[in-house]
Design goal:
It is built from 17 helices and 13 strands. It is globular, with a radius of gyration of 22 Å. It has a seven-stranded parallel beta sheet, with helices on both faces. Helix content is about 45%, strand content about 15%. Helix 11 links the parallel strand 9 (about 270-275) and strand 10 (about 295-300).
Length: about 400
């Protein structure tokens, strides 16, 4: 088939969950189909990264994504006036719409594959652009990484600022309406987790047609290309890794810094908390209250030196949706993981065997302390996680499920 594959982030390098999902899906589809990639790019994306993707794509086209606070403020005002989702309006970029029109004018596609809900509007535009005499109408596939409305709802539940909480709840309601309606208009919707599938289904009004044909395909990595990390003896580092521009990550890290970390230091004074990720906010870099043994690195292209000193990998999320790929990554690295229930949501786990789950500050701190004090226990849990990732989250095996989706179009 001829596939137009739309992504909101350039799916390389593999330094974020959405990129990992899109990259290996793209790799799998390109084995059997002719795939044209159309992606937004940011200033940090390089020609070499685009060239890497061109190795297995029929063609790669890019459109710059430019964001700023003034633009975001304008989109927020538009959202409040129109009743439309702020996030969807923010990603409505005229240059991307024109590029979709140009590609549909110069060639026909059998399928338009929208990676993440943010790109649904462009897939629907592509179908509309194909409704010309003599043109074939492409089938539409949506890869839903998250139940997006649920992220805003959970953020609101943990937000103390009344104005921010009200805006988040409003965005959640707008997003829920948009999400259900967008999903209905696709031929196939693929979900990362069954929990997200059910959450969006529940937003459809009784008696209404719900989402179309659906499948659940988890986010996977490549164990063969991800060797386990050789950890140094006596490691005392507690590590978080994830983009801090993503609100659920920032919220979870702040919760851990202020409510969990002091409890750990009371018992393990030499422990070091390392926060690795893009765009850490000032409250994380320099907490208002004095926080000892805190190391905020920002983005790292290669975090291996820190991972080698890591005794515990943490996922302290209180909000979010979809899957936390950082858990799958940590498993592949052979690191022991402590996560909240929400942090591990959508992932097949064996608590106590390949992960520790804790939801209160005291329980989370105790789980981290347990692994800091017992390196052999950490080694056992880390090795079990590695085996689990190899068995359940290898893209070469799991992503064969995409073949059934495309065979049914």
């Amino acid at each position: 088939m001829r596939i137009l594959f739309l992504t909101q982030v350039l799916p390389y390098p593999l330094d974020a969950g959405p990129k990992i999902r899109a990259y290996y899906t793209l790799r799998h589809l390109a084995r059997q189909h002719q795939v044209t990639l159309l992606s937004f790019v940011r200033p940090m994306d390089t020609p070499a990264q685009v060239e890497h993707l061109a190795q297995f794509c029929q063609a790669v086209h890019t459109v710059p994504m430019r964001r700023s606070r003034p633009r975001d403020a304008l989109h927020l005002i538009e959202s409040l006036i129109t009743g439309q989702s702020f996030i969807i309006r923010r990603d409505r970029v005229p240059a991307m719409a024109r590029r979709v029109d140009e590609l549909l004018a110069t060639g026909e596609f059998d399928v338009v594959h929208a990676d993440q809900l943010w790109m649904a509007q462009y897939a629907l535009r592509a179908r509309a652009a194909s409704r010309k005499p003599g043109s074939s109408i492409p089938r539409l596939v949506l890869d839903e990484h998250n139940a997006c409305y649920l992220i805003a709802r959970r953020l609101a539940a943990e937000e103390r600022n009344p104005l921010k909480r009200a805006l988040a709840m409003l965005e959640s309601r707008k997003m829920a309406r948009y999400e259900v309606e967008a999903c209905r208009r696709f031929d196939w919707v693929v979900w990362v987790t069954e929990q997200d599938h059910r959450a969006v289904e529940q937003q459809a009004a009784d008696g209404e047609r719900r989402v179309p044909r659906s499948a659940v395909i988890p986010i996977c990595g490549d164990p063969a290309a991800t060797p386990g990390v050789r950890r140094k003896p006596g490691a005392q580092r507690v590590t978080f890794l994830g983009g801090l521009h993503y609100p659920p990550n920032a919220q979870g890290v702040l919760w851990f810094i202020h409510h969990v970390w002091p409890l750990i230091l009371q018992q393990i004074p030499d422990a070091v908390l390392t926060i690795i990720g893009k765009d850490p906010m000032p409250e994380i870099r320099n907490p208002k209250s004095e926080i000892r043994n805190l190391d905020v690195t920002g983005y790292l292209a290669d975090p291996t030196p820190y991972l080698a000193e890591t005794a515990v990998f943490i996922v302290p999320l209180l909000a979010g949706g979809g899957m936390r790929v950082k858990i799958v990554d940590a498993w592949m690295w052979g690191l022991p993981v402590v996560s909240t229930t929400i942090g591990a949501e959508g992932i097949e786990t064996r608590p106590g065997e390949n992960i520790l789950i804790a939801d209160t500050p005291a329980d989370f701190a105790q789980a981290v302390v347990r692994l800091l004090r017992d390196p052999e226990e950490g080694q056992r849990i880390g090795q079990a996680g590695r085996r689990w990732a190899e068995q359940h989250y290898d893209w070469r095996r799991v992503y064969r499920a995409w073949d059934q989706v495309y065979a049914d179009l």
